[in-house]
Write a structure and sequence with these properties.
about 350 residues, alpha/beta, 2 domains, nine-stranded mixed β-sheet, binds zinc ion, Glyco_hydro/deAcase_b/a-brl, Polysaccharide deacetylase
């Protein structure tokens, strides 16, 4: 199993949705983070926003790591601070989701962000995550045209519908290839964030969990009881939302279930106390770094090799590298097919909405 670490590398201004005045102080905290990664031979993927890609200080910090061959730089689009801007009318919260913008705006913003990253970092980004996980059909089509190979916006078993975003609740954490409608000749590898259950059958746990989410169900309290009894435990592979033991338990479960990779995710703003809701005071910072370190220690012991997204894409079929990802058994094939179907359904629903 491969270890992938994807970091939304972004401005300090958490959930402010401002087009201007975005500071990037948290990027300096990537220096000690990267030092820890180096100790464990880990190469992360930093997915950068427009303010980070255009600030000389943050570019210098990340470019140095890139030039030493210790990371990959990918793209992370926050539509509210990526030009061009619509100067007609004010900002609507639904527009913080890239997928809700007119197709032309999505294309133009992605082209602009791609261009500044290419120019300022001197590399061609091939991996992408939408801000607020808001992947849409137009963005996926634009990514194909811009030559991207990897997409990582899917949050399995989670719906962002209440915030006007995509519903990923029927997706699992298996990576899979897909071609957006209109781009049959290009495929993107989707590497979802690792969100799963500590129990063996993820899909069954999800069905049970959703049934208990039903607001008309009188038994919604049962969900908490199942969690406490250790019968249905949903875990994000993120130090923002899980402690080290839970993350390691999920990673081990995914290894037993034959997943080819785990994808740990967090925001760079969580590296500096007081910016994100997950790390409020300096003690939280230490806890946060400690959780990551413990996961890296477990990865070293288990022999999970770290690689950036683009490299994982290259070995995904298991042919490019000896000892690469093993070919999938029948169950794995079915899981991939189910995922591809879910992506088609997601695009269909968005097409219907436009
Ligand atoms: Zn973001």
């Amino acid at each position: 199993m491969k270890l992938i670490i994807t970091i939304d590398t972004e401005e300090d201004n958490w959930a402010r949705y401002s087009a201007t005045d975005n500071s990037v102080e948290n990027i300096a905290r990537i220096v000690p983070l990267q030092k820890m990664f180096d100790e464990y031979g880990v190469r992360p993927t930093y997915l950068v926003t427009y303010p980070v890609a255009t600030n000389p200080r943050s570019v210098a910090i990340l470019k140095r790591i890139l030039e030493e061959g210790k990371c990959e730089i990918g793209t992370h689009c926050h539509p509210w601070n990526t030009p061009p801007f619509d100067d007609n009318g004010g900002f609507q919260k639904a527009h913080s989701m890239l997928c809700n913008l007119p197709a032309e705006f999505q294309q133009n913003k992605l082209a602009m962000l791609h261009e500044v990253i290419t120019k300022n970092f001197g590399c061609l980004p091939v991996s992408f995550r939408a801000g607020r996980w808001a992947l849409g059909l137009s963005a996926a089509q634009s990514l194909c045209k811009l030559g991207y190979r990897v997409e990582t916006s899917v949050t399995p078993f989670v719906s962002w519908s209440p915030s006007f975003g995509p519903d990923f609740s029927n997706f699992g954490p298996e990576p899979f290839r897909f071609s957006p409608p209109g781009e049959p000749k290009w495929s993107l590898l989707q590497v979802p964030t690792s969100i799963g259950y500590l129990q063996k059958n993820f899909q069954l746990c999800q069905r049970l969990s959703r049934a208990l989410d039903n607001p008309f169900s009188r038994i919604s309290r049962v969900k908490g009881i199942l969690d406490r009894l250790g019968l249905v435990n949903k875990v994000w592979l993120s130090p923002e939302l899980a402690d080290a033991d839970a993350m390691i338990a999920l990673a081990k479960r995914m290894e037993i279930n034959n997943f080819p990779c785990i994808n740990m995710t967090f925001h760079s703003a969580s590296l500096l106390a007081g910016l994100s809701p997950f790390v409020r005071i300096s003690q939280d910072e230490q806890v946060f770094f400690g959780r990551i370190k413990k996961l890296l220690e477990a990865a070293r012991q288990a022999g999970w090799k770290s690689m950036p997204l683009a490299q994982f894409e290259a070995v995904y079929e298991g042919v490019s590298e000896p000892g690469g990802v093993a070919l999938l058994d029948g169950q794995g094939q079915m899981a991939r097919q189910r995922q591809t179907e879910q992506m088609r359904a997601l695009f269909r629903n968005q097409g219907a909405r436009l």
